Amino acid sequence: MYFRKRNEEPLPKEQTEVWECESEDCIGWMRKDFSYEKHQNCPLCGHKMRTGERLLEKVPPPPH
Q1: What is the pTM of this model?
Q2: Residue 54: beta bridge partners?
Q3: Are 23 and 47 in contact (CB under 8 A)?
Q4: How many Å apart are CA 1 and CA 19, to the nearest integer?
Q5: What is the pLDDT of residues 4-63, one digit of tens each?
Q6: How is 2-64 classified by DSSP, letter by letter?
Q7: Residue 33: φ, ψ to 5°
Q8: Closest CA to 60 of 17, 20, 19, 9
Q9: Which residue in 49, 13, 46, 14 sits closest to 29, CA to CA?
Q10: What is the dihedral of CA 27, 28, 32, 34, to 10 degrees?
């Protein structure tokens, strides 16, 4: 069998607002767009989360 990598262009990146866990021992984070709450608790460890920004791939719009 022969497998070939597709020559797809990488998705553009943009600054995205996220929730980041305040705990030193946890690496939990999630996009703020995917949250409905103004104050978030970490789903991994239960600590409070703070707002931040990360350079992430832009989410493509859903197909019609």
Answers
A1: 0.71
A2: 16
A3: yes
A4: 44
A5: 677 677 788 999 999 999 999 999 999 998 888 788 899 999 999 999 999 998 877 778
A6: ------PPPPPEEEEEEEEE--TT---EEEGGG---SS-B-TTT--BEEEEEEEEEPPPPPP-
A7: -60, -25
A8: 9
A9: 49
A10: 140
Tell me if 23 sits within 8 A of 45, measured CB to CB.
yes
With CA atoms as reference, report the closest residue to 21 among 10, 30, 11. Answer: 30
Q: How many CA atoms lie within 13 A of 39 on its CB side?
A: 3
Task: Give the residue extent of every domain in the chain.
Answer: 13-56
Whole-Å CA distances, 18 to 4, 30, 40, 63: 35, 6, 11, 24
Token pair listed for 35:
């949250």
